[in-house]
Design goal:
Layout lengths: L2 E14 L2 E14 L3 E5 L6 H8 L7 E6 L2 E2 L5 H11 E4 L11 H12 L3 H14 L15 H13 L5 E5 L7 H16 L4 E5 L2 H4 L4 E6 L2 E6 L5
Parallel strand pairs: 3-8, 3-9, 6-7, 7-8
Antiparallel strand pairs: 1-2, 1-4, 4-5, 9-10
Helix pairs in contact: 3-4, 3-5, 4-5, 5-6
């Protein structure tokens, strides 16, 4: 398998005035193409900081982070934005759909920034909405969809650019248990299709859907299989 994400001795600190607040401590993590990895940890464990670094929304204070062979530490803000657009598909807890756009228009949006033609945008957006089971909901606005359907639209929007990694932040956090399980089944199907997924969660049951679990606590990583997670 191709190595697509490699973190080596990653440290991250923030500063409150002159006081240093260490968040991540010597983090080492490698993810290969086609893996489904969950990063499991309670509030305050450092998992949001991990997500921001993985998603190129922030950079480490020290250490090496390679994403698809790109050394993230060497990139400026414009270059980081290009990497995010090309390599990462984001799925958020609260969907973040534009309320006045239909499901189809929401999914098309990232392709506008790519400069694709109207016909190509429509073709790709329709295909991915069909893949996530929303062929009959393309013309609906977000408020005409259930929570689970809105998250499927968000997943389709993340996938339509064919990113290297699908990065999901608490993807079932705003859903009831049954709907959350259905969304996780979709993630498993996408992974079976070869999609690389990295999921951030505090929920042990949700983490177990991944094939590999990395536990984060007080900024330190320990690794377990999905079956071993307690």
């Amino acid at each position: 398998m191709t190595e697509i994400l490699h973190m080596e001795n990653i440290n991250k600190s923030y500063y409150m005035g002159e006081e240093e607040l260490p968040i991540l401590h010597d983090v080492n993590l490698t993810i290969h193409s086609g893996e489904f990895v969950s990063i499991l940890g309670p509030s305050g464990s450092g998992k949001s900081t991990m997500m921001n670094i993985i998603g190129c929304l922030d950079v480490p204070s020290s250490g090496k982070y390679l994403l698809s062979g790109n050394d993230i530490n060497d990139l400026d803000e414009i270059e980081l934005a290009k990497i995010r657009n090309k390599e990462i598909g984001f799925v958020f807890q609260n969907f973040q759909l534009l309320p006045r756009m239909t499901a189809l228009q929401n999914v098309e949006l990232p392709l506008i920034y790519r400069g694709l033609s109207f016909s190509e945008r429509q073709q790709r957006a329709k295909a991915i909405l069909e893949r996530v089971g929303l062929a009959d909901r393309m013309k609906n606005l977000p408020n005409q969809l259930s929570g689970g359907q809105q998250q499927r639209v968000a997943i389709a929007r993340a996938l339509v650019t064919e990113p290297t990694i699908l990065l999901a932040d608490e993807p079932t956090g705003a859903l009831d248990q049954k709907t959350g399980s259905q969304v996780m089944e979709l993630f498993e199907e996408l992974n079976n299709d070869g999609r690389t997924i990295v999921m951030i969660t505090h929920d042990i049951k949700i983490a177990r859907h991944a094939r590999r679990v990395v536990h984060i606590l007080d900024g330190h990583l320990t690794e377990q299989t999905g079956q071993e997670v307690e």
